[in-house]
Amino acid sequence: MTSTFPDISISTDRLVLRPFEAEDVPALAEMMSDELVTAWTSVPHPFTTVHARDWALRQAPAERTQGRGIVFAVTEFLTHRLVGCVHLHHLDWRTLSAEIDYIVAPWARGEGYACESVLAVAEWLFADQKFERLELRTPADNTASQQVAQKIGCISEGVLRNAWIARSRTEDGGWTEIRTDLIIWSLLPEDLDEVREQQTGGSDYAGAFTDWH
Fold this sequence. Notes:
Radius of gyration: 17 Å
Number of helices: 7
Structural class: alpha+beta
Protein name: GNAT family N-acetyltransferase
Pfam families: Acetyltransf_3
Distance between the termini: 40 Å
Strand content: 25-35%
Domain N-acetyltransferase: 15-172
Order of helices and strands: EEHHHEEEHEHEEHH
């Protein structure tokens, strides 16, 4: 029998992480069409409303129901605006480990939402689901994403050489694929202790985590 995550939502002081809904499709299509998303991820380009609807209403729910992971739409608590996406995948139910990806919409960057949403998912994964390891993989030149990994307490474990295909703008305005290394980061339950201490000491997400692009 395949293990699956529950169908849940996670709340923080500023965010609600929940399943995608049909109303999210236009904002999702716009978010995933951003140049930085195109450059550092493998999403289709151009990313159309058809892609967005298929991801939000078919592929994302199937990740959970088929035991492959879980996808959260990240929304602002006050405005309900879509500001990002967090995806747990590459699950190993025997070793209780998972990989996490995250995207923040261009209209929501600089607010610390990447760190806040990833930490919320990590807390839930470790405390409620009893997982023991969370892994992040960041392209070698994506320094902004690496800052997120560092700020949430991840430990750098090494480099997968020539392991990722990124995209770069060409002189004529198009895109070309380039190979790059991947930096491997890990987060364990005990690694969150220092983050909790920082929060208890009065630091906040918005002030501490403002550099994600």
